[in-house]
């Protein structure tokens, strides 16, 4: 099949493109720049120039393809509402072009949208949206009633490999800047995790075999405590590991991640594995954190990036 991929040159997108090509699919990747276009062509993909703002381009890419994997998101935490509105507009443009085709559309969602429940969330758990893109997900899945094989993949907050660990990397940077690694209260709240390559396989599995209207959880580890994550970061950075009160979370980590530190998000992928035959096999989050933070050059670059993000 010829698959249109947004976010094709991103951290997860490059792995998804490689997985698609390895399975014999053709790829059309959305590229905003010459650099992105070159990267895609070097991987063996075709290119469609444009961005999430170019709704006509997105619609054309969807219409000309046999299916879509939508990964792009601006990740603008300073205007998260605006980022979600842009995402909804992009999803609408692509799905309107697919109505009645029965072509697959795989949207990107997050496990944090079903959090703080007091129990383990699964694929059928509705979103309570404490931190996420529920509106985007609902919009994309609504097209399953209009002749689109629409599905959603909920990503763990810590999608990782040896070079990046999602929210885990950001917490490492926060710890390095503050010269302490912190968790809130007893630190018993948990985050799920998944390796980037396992997540990429799931996106393609959902494209090939996913059932219309279904949500799949990209979760290899159901829950790692924030205390365990902070302890690992502290030991590798050689900084103290401390417990903070809830009111100290935002001063320590900022508004977005101060709240994220307190989220409890145990999540199961049992139904995903059963329905799609998905079997994660790659290293754990703490393994990849160890590899990443054991390199002093990575730590120095991380601190510099965190400083720049605060300016």
TrEMBL record:
GO terms for cellular component: cytoplasm. It comes from the Bacteria. Residues 3-217 form the NAD-dependent epimerase/dehydratase domain. It holds the Pfam family Epimerase. GO terms for molecular function: aldehyde dehydrogenase (NAD+) activity. InterPro entries: Epimerase_deHydtase, NAD(P)-bd_dom_sf, NAD(P)-dependent_oxidoreduct. This is NAD dependent epimerase/dehydratase family protein.
């Amino acid at each position: 099949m010829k698959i249109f991929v947004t976010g094709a040159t991103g951290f997860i997108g490059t792995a998804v493109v490689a997985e698609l090509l390895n399975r014999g699919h053709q790829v059309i990747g959305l590229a905003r720049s010459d650099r992105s276009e070159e990267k895609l062509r070097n991987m063996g993909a075709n290119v469609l120039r444009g961005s999430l703002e170019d709704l006509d381009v997105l619609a054309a890419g969807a219409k000309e393809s046999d299916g879509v994997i939508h990964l792009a998101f601006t990740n603008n935490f300073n205007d998260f509402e605006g980022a979600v509105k842009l995402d909804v507009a992009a999803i609408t443009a692509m799905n309107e072009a697919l109505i009645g085709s029965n072509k697959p559309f795989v949207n990107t969602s997050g496990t944090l949208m079903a959090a703080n429940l007091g129990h383990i969330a699964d694929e059928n758990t509705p979103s309570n949206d404490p931190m996420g893109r529920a509106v985007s997900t609902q919009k994309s899945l609504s097209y399953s009633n209009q002749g689109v094989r629409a599905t959603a993949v909920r990503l763990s907050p810590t999608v990782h490999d040896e070079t990046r660990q999602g929210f885990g990397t950001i917490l490492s940077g926060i710890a390095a800047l503050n010269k302490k690694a912190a968790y809130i209260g007893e630190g018993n709240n948990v985050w799920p995790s998944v390796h980037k390559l396992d997540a990429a396989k799931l996106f393609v599995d959902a494209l090939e075999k996913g059932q219309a209207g279904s949500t799949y959880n990209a979760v290899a580890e159901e829950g790692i405590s924030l205390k365990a994550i902070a302890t690992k970061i502290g030991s590798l950075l050689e900084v103290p590991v401390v417990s903070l009160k809830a009111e100290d979370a935002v001063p320590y980590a900022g508004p977005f991640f101060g709240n994220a530190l307190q989220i409890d998000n145990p999540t199961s992928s049992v139904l995903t594995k059963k329905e799609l035959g998905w079997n994660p096999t790659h290293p754990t989050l703490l393994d990849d954190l160890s590899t990443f933070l054991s390199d002093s050059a990575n730590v120095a670059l991380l601190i510099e990036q965190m400083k720049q993000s605060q300016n």
